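Input.
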Amino acid sequence: MMGKFFKKPGPEMSDRIPPGQYESKGFPVLTYGSTPEVSIENWEFRVWGLAKEARFSWSDIMAMPQSNFTADFHCVTRWSKLDVQWTGVKVTDFMQHIEVNPKAKFIMEHCYGGYTTNISMEDFWREENFFAHTLFGEPLPAEHGGPLRLVVPHLYAWKSAKWINGLEFLNQEELGFWERNGYHRRGEPWAEERYSGF
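Output.
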């Protein structure tokens, strides 16, 4: 099974694949609970908390500057998918469309299906982060988080919330679903921040 789907990285990949990870030959799908099916006609994205409340339709997102990205993707379950190709909206471009209170230090990512995950403003507001709607040239499939997901390449993939539909800006850290169930608050792959207390 390991040899068929996953490959142990050689030393030449030590700058690409974090400790304890295996290179995946495919793009595994891991989801807790059922997969939400949301049409782009009914899709909506909301901003609230320590930010001026705003709502965005699918056409609003598509009217923002669109960019192509190639990024490595690291799952806490010990696989890494290299050179994943996405299209979407940079977080830095999206942030030009909202007003955030300077007191906001953390964000709770909210998703269709009820999933949540927390992230600091410092980790979120980075040039390399983006909201993705296209994967390898095709509309992002629901099982991979479509119609829209956040992608945060420098953290484990559970921080790259699937089916994202809102950002709640906070002045202090609150824990999301997996963080309340034993996962690390931040999830940095190179430090192997997999679980709380480790």
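The CA atoms of residues 151 and 160 lie 4 Å apart.
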